[in-house]
Amino acid sequence: MAQQIEVVLARPVTTKPCAADFAVVERATPDAGDGEILVRVAYLSLDPYIGSRLRGKHMGEPSPAPGESLPGFAVGEVVSSRHPGFAIGDHVVGECGWTELGVMRGDQARRVNASLPLSAHLGALGMPGLTAWAGVTQLAKVSEGDIFLVDAAAGAVGGTAGQIARNLGARAIGIAGGAAKCDLVRDAYGFDACIDYKQSGWQDAARLACGGGPTVHFENVGLSVLQSVMPMLRDYGRVVLCGLAEHYQSEGPPASLAIGAIIGKRAQMLGLVVYDFYPRLDEWVALATPWV
Amino acid sequence: MAQQIEVVLARPVTTKPCAADFAVVERATPDAGDGEILVRVAYLSLDPYIGSRLRGKHMGEPSPAPGESLPGFAVGEVVSSRHPGFAIGDHVVGECGWTELGVMRGDQARRVNASLPLSAHLGALGMPGLTAWAGVTQLAKVSEGDIFLVDAAAGAVGGTAGQIARNLGARAIGIAGGAAKCDLVRDAYGFDACIDYKQSGWQDAARLACGGGPTVHFENVGLSVLQSVMPMLRDYGRVVLCGLAEHYQSEGPPASLAIGAIIGKRAQMLGLVVYDFYPRLDEWVALATPWV
User: Fold this and answer.
1) Which long-range contacts (CB under 8 A, 24 or more apart) does A50-59 make?
2) Which of A58, A269, A277 is the best substitution to test chain B (most B C-beta atoms within 10 A)?
3) Which fold would CATH assign to domain B127-287?
C-alpha cells in the first residue's frame, strides 16, 4: 500500500505554535470514499488564523487533536473521484490536511481554473482575496477619491485589498515591513506608496503619503498599527477590522482601542469575517480572474 | 441700569467641576446690539458635554475664561430685538450664558413653538432629541424587528432614542439607575423594559429582556455598560457610540474597548457627533412635534 507523509500535531497547542508541536508521520495514502475525491496537493496555505485555529480560539471551532488532520486550504489535482462533480485531472481547492495526497469531501471542494497560477486560488482568487474584496467593496464601500491605507500590504489580503481599491479609483497606500516588501507592494502590486513600519517615523511618512490621513483604513495587524492610524484617520473615516494577526498568539490582555476618537472622528469600525461572503466567492473570482 | 445675576467661572476648571469653580456675579443687563436679541431665559440645559467643554476638552473648542459667559443652550422669550427675524414675544433657543437676561446673535438663535412645553426644546425637540434621531435613524438605521438597547435611558438622549426606535417597530430596552428612573422609562416613555444597573446581575436581566441580546446598542455612558453589552450583542449588531459621560471628568487613561469582539460579531461601531445633523434639525422637529 502506498505510503506518504502528513504533518499533524504531536501535542496540543496552547501558545504560539513551535516546531515541537508538530510531527511528520508516515501514513497509508487514503482512498476516496463515497462522495469524496483524492487530491494531490500542489500548495497548502498557512494563513494567520491557523495559529488560533490550532488552539481552538478561532470562531468557536474546536482545536484538532494530536494525530488528526490539520485545517488549512490546499489546491491540487484530483487523482481519483467518487463524486459526480469531479473528474480525474480537475483542479480543486479544499481542506484535506497537511499532506501529499488527501481526501476532500466533494461537497466542500471547489473546482478552479488550472490555466491560472495554481497558488492564486489560495491567495488573490481564494479566501484572502475574497476577504479583501468584502472589506473594500462591501464594508468600507471604497470609491473614487478615497485614500485607502492597508497594513500587511505585502500579504495576500492587504496586497489584494490595495489593488481593488486602486481599481475603484482610490489612492492606495500600503504599510509593510522592510524595503523588499515595500518595493514589492509599490512595483509589483502597483500601490501609490508603501511605508516601511520598521523605519522610525513611519507614522509621519504614512500621514504624508495619505495627504494628511486616510479616509479608509484596512486593519490586518493590530494595535501597533491601528493606534497610530486612528489619530490620522479623516473625519467620517471607515476602518475595516479584518485581522489582528499580531495578537493571535498573545496570551496578554485583549487588544483594546481607545474609543473616544471613534466618536470625535465620526468613524465607523467595521468587523469583517470572510465566512459571511463565501456564497459570493464566484462573483469575486469572475471579477478578479482577468486581473491575475 | 437694571442688574441681574450670571454664573461664570471663578477659576479655570481642570478636573471634575465643583461649586468652588463657579461664581455668581451681579451684572448690568446687557443691551442687544445690531443683529442681536435680548432673551429672558426660561430654562438652561446643562448637558453632559458641558463638563468637558468647560475644560477645553470638547471638539476642540476653547474653555471659557473666568468671568466670561458660559456655554450651554437656553430657551426663553425675546424681550428686545435688533434682528429682523425676531420680534418681542418670540420664543427662541440659543446660547446666551448662564444668566437671567442674555444676548443671543440672531443668526445663531432658532425660533421655537411656544405652544409646546418650553423645556422640550432643550430636550426631545432640541439637541438631545436630534442626537437620538441621528443615532437611531441615520447611523444604526433601526427598523422593524430590531432589538434596541440604550443606556442613560431616563435621560433626554436615551429616552428619546428608545421612543424613536419603538415608533420604527423595534423592541426598546432601557438601562437606567434605580427603580424610579426605570419606572419612568417603562411607564412614561413606554419602553418595553428597563433594567436597573444598580442591581447586581443586571447584565443577565438585560440579556433576558433582549431575548438573548440586542441587535442595536446606543451607548451614552461608557465602558461600565459597553463592556457588558458587547458579549451579548448579536452578530452583525450595530453600536452607536454617542457619549461616554462617565469618562468625561476622568483623568485616567482613555476608555479602551477590546476590539476582537467587533470582528467576531461582525459588529459596526458608529461614532456620532450631533453637530453634523444640525442642518436637519427642522426635519426632526417636524417629525417629533406630534409626539410631544
Assistant:
1) A51/A13, A51/A16, A51/A17, A51/A248, A51/A249, A52/A248, A52/A249, A54/A9, A54/A13, A54/A17, A54/A21, A55/A13, A55/A14, A55/A15, A57/A248, A59/A273, A59/A275, A59/B264
2) A269
3) Rossmann fold (3.40.50)
